């Protein structure tokens, strides 16, 4: 399976009120549908989109970061209509100060 990697801007730590962008990079193929998860390795929960969490293509945007946004994030890709997905990315730790 293809591997995925998450890049984050700005660099950790993020300050309260800042906007955070996480980009999911998956080798090979294009037309992925990106899924974002938060939690820990044994309990990853798919992120619900909201007015603060928006997904635009391969990028998760967190508006006005608050302390509860801190934690571990993963991404994963799915190709619709095909039994193909990527591996989970390694975890990205987000710190909000």
From TrEMBL:
It comes from the Eukaryota. Keywords: Disulfide bond, Signal. It holds the Pfam family Ig_3. Residues 2-95 form the Ig-like domain. The keyword Disulfide bond applies. PANTHER family: FC RECEPTOR-LIKE PROTEIN 4, IMMUNOGLOBULIN FC RECEPTOR. This is Ig-like domain-containing protein. It comes from Cirrhinus mrigala.
């Amino acid at each position: 399976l293809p591997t995925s990697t998450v890049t984050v801007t700005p660099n950790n730590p993020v300050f309260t009120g800042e906007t955070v962008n996480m980009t999911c990079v998956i080798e090979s193929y294009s037309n992925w549908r990106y899924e974002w998860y938060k939690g820990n390795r044994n309990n990853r929960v798919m992120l619900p989109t909201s007015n603060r969490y928006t997904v635009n293509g391969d990028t998760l945007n967190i508006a006005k970061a608050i302390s509860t946004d801190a934690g571990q994030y993963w991404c994963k890709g799915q190709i619709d209509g095909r039994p193909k997905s990527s591996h989970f990315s390694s975890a990205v730790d987000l710190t909000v100060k």
